[in-house]
Amino acid sequence: MAKAIILVGTQWGDEGKGKVVDYLSSAFDVTARFAGGNNAGHTVIIKDHRFILQLIPCGILRLEKHAVIGSGTVVDPAALMSEVETLTSAGIDVTGRLHVSNRAHVIFPFHRQIDKAAEAARGSDNLGTTKRGIGPAYEDKVARRGLRICDLMDAEVFRAKLARLLDEKAATFRKTYGVELEITGLVEESLVLAERLRPYVIDTAMYLNQALGKGRSVMFEGAQGTMLDIDHGTYPFVTSSSSTAGGASAGCGVPPIRITGVIGVTKAYTTRVGTGPFPTEMPDIEAEEVRSRGNEFGSVTGRPRRCGWLDLVMLRYAVMINGIGSMVVTKLDVFDAQKEIQVCVGYKYKGTPVKEMPAEVGKFAALVPEYKSVRGWQSPTFGLREESKLPQLARDYLKFISDEIGTEVGMVSTGPERDATMVRGGSQLEKWLRD
């Protein structure tokens, strides 16, 4: 059976998935993105080059590999072509290797305008979106009025469908926000972008299933994280798509029976961008220290990330929801100077232990974490590539995480560079890479 592995974030995104996907992609023929849009930011550092990929899967950076943008994504054609240009200028030719689903929905400039207006109208109750139009595009998709990449490929069909959509959108926007929707030149600009996009457009579900049928391996690249999933996250402070492992089958058109494993990614601590509950959030002074050491600023928005202690209740939940068989721990080196490390091992609500992840966001925000203190190793791990060189207390920390979540820690990242990585010998993850 061909290898088909899903890689997902286990927190609120920003776990370092970009570097992990880039590292692991050497063992896969194809990397496929199954959800989200250009609100994701996957950063990969290779020698002197820093790549920030927002929509194109990180596997594209390996010149012999293929990358797929699946039907579960929403695609901003202008942003995508800009990303293609950036890669091309850096010597990364995507011709014949990048494949975009003809069923993916399109983000238009008016989606961004609606996103910004809606966030402003919410005031202090805003959701903290990236204002890239992701949510409004998914709204149109679910309401069955959205336009897809295949519509862009036929000018006559596109003009007719867009005209109907704009009539509805313009009237609603005017009534809701009291201003006009900016649509001047939209049709012509979209059709120009369509021609630039055309060489990459295919039926990606057929492509992926045929690839697996021929024994080629596929890694499904998740965006955001488990706690931002539209169904299983801290709703409504979530993204607009299925960012958990189950989203890979729906978002790429590959049946679940073909999936052979799931890898999760977590930081050695926890971060969150934007508003929403965060039980293990650190006090300002401690958070600023971690933010500085970990360079915790959004790769897409530049926003400072909120920082907190590692939340094992969240990780156990992510393991259950996703079926994670191996966990990757990133940014272990950020704790190199930490004397004591707090780890959340449980929650209480009004003095009573909580045995399941709350669904209601108000209750979630009132959780009181129970901490266990772990000794820090106070020794440099930055850039280490061999497990044998890890300080014993760092190994103890990783073992503690593994024991608590009931899943192995199969890989550890100790810095932003591609090679500042160690795959642990005898792990399931090592076996997946080798097979």
The value of Rg in angstroms is 22 Å
The overall average pLDDT, rounded, is: 92
Shape: globular
- By DSSP, the count of extended strands is 20
**How many strands, which pairing sense, and closed or not: the largest β-sheet?**
10 strands, mixed
Provide a descriptive summary of the structure in words:
This protein has 435 residues and is α/β, with parallel strands linked by helices. It is 34% helix and 20% strand. It contains 14 helices and 20 strands. The protein has helices spanning 17-24, 77-89, 109-122, 134-142, 149-152, 155-177, 186-197, 204-213, 246-252, 284-294, 312-322, 361-365, 392-405, 428-434; strands at 4-9, 30-33, 42-46, 49-53, 66-69, 74-75, 98-101, 105-106, 201-202, 218-221, 261-267, 270-272, 306-308, 310-311, 326-330, 340-349, 352-353, 368-375, 408-413, 421-423. The strands form 5 sheets. Strands 9-7-5-2-10-1-11-15-19-20 form a 10-stranded mixed sheet, with helices on both faces. Strands 14, 16, 17 and 18 form a 4-stranded mixed sheet that branches. Helix 3 (109-122) crosses helix 4 (134-142). It is globular. The protein starts with a strand and ends with a helix.
Brief synopsis:
34% of the residues lie in helices and 20% in strands.
